[in-house]
Amino acid sequence: MTALDYPGGLISAVIFAQGCNFACPYCHNPNLVRLFGEPVDDEGVMAFLRRRRGLLDGVVISGGEPTLQPDLADFCKKLRGLGYLVKIDTNGARPEVVADLIERKLINYVALDLKADPRAYPAEIAPADPGGAVLETVGLLKRSGLPHEFRTTVVRPFVTEETIIAIARAAAGTAPLYLQKYRPGPALNPARLAAAQPGPADLERLRDLASVFTTCLLRGA
Question: What is the largest CA-CA distance in the chain?
Fold first, then answer.
C-alpha cells in the first residue's frame, strides 16, 4: 500500500513486473531487470485486490518494464473490471503497447521515464537502440489527452545540463517533468556511477534550466 506512487495521493498497490529491455547502471530494482523463476499466478493477485476494494483507489504497474509482459492488456482489463484506476511506469521503448492500452481505455495514467537525451540513449542504458521509440511514446502521450508525467532520475555521469535541456525540450507541453534525486542503494552496475552525485543546489540549477522549456518540478530532493 502506498500513497506516493499514484498522483494526487491516491492509495494504491504496486505490482512489479520482471524483465527489462534497458540496463540502466543505476537501476534501483536490479533483481527485476532479468527474468527469473516462474511468474506469479495473476488470480492470486486479483484475489488480493478484490479483498481490498474500497480500501485502495488504484494499481500501479512498475518494474522492470511492464510493456514487455505479453498479457499486460488483459491484466489491465481485469484491474479496470475491479474498479481500480491503473497507472503504468514505462521506459517508453514500446510505443505500440502504450498506444493500444490508451486506445482501449485500459489505463488512467502513464509515467514515462526519460533516462537521457531521448534522441540518443547511451548503449549502457539501452543496449538495443530504441531508435526513436521513446520520442514516439512522448508524442503519443501528448496527443492522447491521457493524464501523464515525464520523469528523470538525475544521476551522474548520464545526466548533465545538456541532457536536461534536451529532455525538457522533448517533454515540453502540458504535462510536468519531474527531476528525481538519485539515492544510493542497490544498483545494477554501481561501478559506472560517479562517486559524487548531484546535491540540492545542483538539482535546483537543473530544474531552472528545464523550466525555460516546460513545467519542471523536483521530487524527493
Answer: 48
- Banded pLDDT at 221 (limits 50, 70, 90): low
pTM: 0.94
Using alpha carbons, select from 38, 40, 37 the residue that is nearest to residue 16: 40
pLDDT, tens digit (0-9, with 9 covering 90-100), for 131-183:
799 999 999 999 999 999 999 999 999 999 999 999 999 999 999 999 999 98
For residues 161 and 154, give the distance between their C-alpha atoms in angstroms, rounded to a whole number: 10
- Contact assessment for residue 210 and residue 216, using Cβ atoms and an 8 Å cutoff: yes
CATH number at residue 47: 3.20.20.70
End-to-end CA distance of the chain: 23
Residue carrying the nine cell digits 554501481 = 190
Q: Write out the H or E segment, with its range, that includes residue 171.
A: helix 161-171
Model confidence over 58-93: pLDDT tens digits?
Answer: 999 999 999 999 999 999 999 999 999 999 999 999
What is the number of domains present in the chain? 1
Rounded to whole angstroms, the Cα distance separating 190 from 62 reads: 22
For residue 175, CA distances in Å to 23, 87, 98, 136, 182 come to 26, 15, 17, 16, 22
Range of the structural domain that residue 162 is part of: 2-219
Nearest-angstrom CA–CA distance, 121 and 127? 9
Q: 137 and 88 in contact (C-beta within 8 Å)?
A: no
